[in-house]
Amino acid sequence: MIEQLTPGGRPAFVVNVEVHLHRDGRWLLIKRAEQEAHAAGLLSGVGGKVDLPAGPVVPDVLAVATIDHRG
Asked: Average of pLDDT values for 17-23?
């Protein structure tokens, strides 16, 4: 595990995840707010920032954050 902090002690990067769920011929999407700085008003997968624990960072965060919903 590698600890990645800025000189100020904050995490050196932010991890974002986004889910594009397709089931029974339908997609689960959101419409981004018109006020968003990035991709305002467009459709997007559902997601957000991953809160990482303090200390060392798991190298493969996708393996930790991914949940299999194939049922």
From this structure: 87
* Residue 44 neighbours by CB distance under 10 Å: 14
pLDDT of residue 49: 82
Cα–Cα distance for residue pair 27/22, rounded to 1 Å: 5
- Answering whether pTM is above 0.70, one says no
Determine the Cα–Cα distance for residues 21 and 45; give it in Å rounded to an integer: 8
Give the Cβ contact number of residue 67 at 10 Å.
Answer: 6
Whose CA is closest to 19, among 8, 11, 27, 31? Answer: 27
